[in-house]
Structures are given as C-alpha cells and as structure tokens.
Amino acid sequence: MKQALLLFFGLTMFNLSAQGILGKWKTIDDETGEEKSIVNIYEVDGKVYGNIIEILNPKKKNSRCTKCEGNNKDKPIVGMQIIDGLTKNDDVYEGGTILNPSNGKVYKCRLKLEDDSNKLQVRGYVAFFYKTQYWKRVN
User: Sorted alphabetically, which keywords does the UniProt record give (predicted)?
Assistant: First the structure.
C-alpha cells in the first residue's frame, strides 16, 4: 500500500512539473486584479505561442483590437495570437514578444512558472522598464 501511494504521488508530481507552461491560463490584470481572459499557450517547432481563446467580461466578448497596428488592426481579440516565439532558457521562456490588446503595444516577453506550477509570471518589458502579471492555470 505504501509503495502504491508513493508511486501515485511521484507520478502526480512528475506530471505537474512536466506540464510546464503549456495549457490554458486565466489572465489577471496587475492593477485591478480583474480576471480578463483565457490564453492557450502552446508549442510549435520548439517555440512557444499563446492565443486568447475567451474574454471573460460578457460585454467585451466581441472586442476588436482597435489600438493594434499592422495585421491585427481591428481584428477580433478572441483568437488573436498575443505571445509569439518564446524559447526555453533554463527555467524561463524568453526571446519573443507579447501583445497587449488593450493598448495595441508589443513588448519583449518573459514567462516563468512559479513554484506551485499553477501560477505563471508574465513579464512584458521595453529596455529595463517592465510590468509583471501573474496568471492562474485553468484546469
């Protein structure tokens, strides 16, 4: 019985750590604490990307990125790729960008899984100025 429990807990812990940053995350506004959207983070050819798959405020579900430039100008926010081209470097993902649909700006991005693996540190920055949010894993 003891061995079975140890095996179960060992596999569960391995599964959580192996899960990494991939999957669905609830975005939390760092200033207001408001839950804003669900982002699906996925990997293609060794690079990490993220798309908004749901907006949580019913009044904003059909929002468009009016402040975006280029290809995203006036496009629906649901379905929009906001995380682009990050690669793993030790325990962080970096080297890519993140788009803030609220202001249309693109920032360098760094993602880091917190110790409990259900919280993701999301940092967008320009030069040495940065802003950090903590997103919650969606089960």
Answer: Signal
